[in-house]
Specification:
With 251 residues, the chain is mostly helical. It is built from eleven helices and four strands. A hairpin with a 2-residue loop joins β1 and β2 (27-28). The relative contact order is 0.13.
């Protein structure tokens, strides 16, 4: 697919956002959140580790998203698609561990799951919300999918198969959006040949679920039904292979 994320400027996003009027899990997003986002491309192991923990713990806390998560989501997608930043997202100290670009893609996938229509419906049921009560942060994040999709798609041919799978997981989540439905047929062969054949049971289940929902290809296994009320199976960062401990460098 001839797609790239060059239309997004990550530095403009982080510099022009009014972070002082946004919140994360700790309260006001300024100055920590913009500083942590800038550090993601710093190349410094300690700074990058701290920034990843900020993404996973402060901007996505136990499935809760915040007003600051919205521009952070847009920034991470833009950073992944920014060609000048590619080298910084593949630092030499990664070794053979799960790459930084894969961790960022995984974070996008986790956020996309937590703001999905299905998850929103579950929250409404648990909290007995009015069916028409809006979840503004959910809607705002989902509105970013069309502009963020090219950045994600640019990793479909990454040299690391784990990164390719991470990108496909994000794409499957994004393609829940009607605005991206036209890409489902084009993505079906990748879902069938990569996600559906993954060593990860969860990835295989997600592939089957997507193919069934799209009406494309073959349903290879029965879609996984979450037996727990939390819906946690859909969030990739429960997997230690993808994230690592928050108390240790995740590389």
């Amino acid at each position: 697919m001839n797609m790239n994320g060059d239309n997004l400027n990550p530095y403009a996003i982080v510099n022009l956002t009014d972070w002082a009027n946004l919140e994360n899990a700790d309260g006001l997003a300024f100055p920590d959140t913009p500083a942590k986002l800038r550090d993601l491309a710093s190349g410094d192991l300690s700074a990058v580790t701290s920034s990843l923990n900020h993404l996973y713990n402060t901007l996505l806390n136990d499935g809760v998203v915040y007003s600051a998560t919205v521009p952070a989501f847009r920034y991470v997608a833009a950073l992944l698609g920014d060609r000048p930043s590619r080298a910084a997202l593949a630092p030499p100290w990664e070794g053979g561990k799960f790459p930084l670009r894969g961790k960022l893609l995984t974070w996008l996938a986790n956020v996309a799951f937590d703001v999905s229509v299905g998850q929103e419906q579950r929250i409404r049921e648990w909290g007995k919300y009015s069916p028409t009560e809006p979840f503004p942060n959910f809607v705002d994040i989902r509105s970013i999918y069309p502009e963020a999709f090219p950045s994600v798609a640019s990793y479909f041919d990454d040299s690391d198969s784990r990164v390719v799978e991470a990108a496909l997981v994000v794409a499957v989540r994004f393609l829940e959006s009607p605005a991206l439905a036209m890409h489902r047929r084009r993505l079906t062969p990748l879902v069938e040949n990569i996600l559906a054949r993954s060593s990860s049971e969860w990835h295989r289940s997600l592939a089957s679920e997507a193919l069934n929902a799209w009406g494309q290809g073959r349903v290879l296994i029965e879609s996984y039904t979450d037996p727990l009320p939390s819906g946690e199976y859909g969030r990739v960062h429960n997997s230690q292979e993808n994230r690592g401990s928050v108390d240790e460098p995740p590389f």
